[in-house]
Amino acid sequence: MPATTKKLAIASTALAMLAATNSGAFAQKKYDPGATDTEIKIGNIMPYSGPASAYGVIGKTEEAYFKKINAEGGINGRKINFISYDDGYSPPKTVEQARKLVESDEVLFVFNPLGTPPNSAIQKYLNSKKVPQLFVATGATKWNDPKNFPWTMGWQPNYQSETQIYAKYILKEMPNAKIGVLYQNDDYGKDYLKGLKDGLGAKGASMIVLEESYEVSQPTIDSHIVKLKSAGADVFINITTPKFAAQAIKKNAEIGWKPVHFLNNVSASIGAVMKPAGFDAGQGIISSQYLKDTSDPQWKDDAGMKAFDEFLTKYFPEGNRIDGSVMFGYTVAQGLVHVLKQCGDNLTRENVMKQAASIKDLELGGLLPGIKVNTSATDFAPISQVQLIRFKGETWERFGEVLSGDATN
Description:
Oligomer: single chain
Number of domains: 2
CATH class of the largest domain: Alpha Beta
Radius of gyration: 24 Å
Distance between the termini: 70 Å
Strand order of the largest sheet: 3-2-4-5
CATH architecture of the largest domain: 3-Layer(aba) Sandwich
């Protein structure tokens, strides 16, 4: 081959390689609004004020966890820009904040917005905009509906499954129970109530002696507790958020009502509910758990708990270690980091949802042994297992096997 021809061949080969490299780079790096070579912009909405403000610490924990991730180099070289707004647990305000995040801040997606009524208010909007409403902080069953809402995904075990598990336990252990129910009069409370009734089946109508609902705007639920006691209920299903859960436990003790007390998982926090209500008043309460209890000494040498404690010490020292919401925020943030790592350089909204719907047997340090995160294109319920727990002394004790409910959409 003549020298000139050889040079041309080498040059054309080099150009071809360069073109291939460039086209490969273009093929690999795909961005939607909120993602660049250096940043992933994530939106969040929390009740930092208002009747559900006890949950605000979830957003603070997530913010601290993302600071840790950024300090360690970010995700695939990109830093997380976490933008979190307060909605006061008011759906109209949630709508306003969601629009701001999508249209002004141009976030890649909205992560872990809290509450059933607030998320219900923004679900259609985010789906119409094709913006992921990812790992919502509410166990309502309707978040697992990929056919109708492909941009919305839950995180925690759903409410209906949880109360179905309580119903199964009641039918087995207390078949002649007289059940009194206190529930929040919104989608969250009604979802739990439906699960209970489905779980009790045909016997439910005769077993439930009274259903009492309360409004989130009420200052106290004391009068409802008195009514439930007067109805002769010997089993109490307590479907309340932390403020009202603590009130109910206190009032039960005050009036000497000692039913078998089932407390929904979302209010099983020792720091936010059991301690403020008084440990003596909470003895024997049954709930369910999928996260490790930070106050339980059995985890003191556990690798997952040690990592959690190191995170708190370095990045969130003001966090209340025994508040279950802190462990919740930490664990769901870890779940998101897993998804974003899987996205690689394809940070489109579509790929975020695709990776979120492709989680296989993910074990996270804060989850109880045997509980794993699994999703698919037809299953948008990442965590579907729980274990029953009973309050004893100053902590929860697990009993029985890891259980699953039957609720699917």
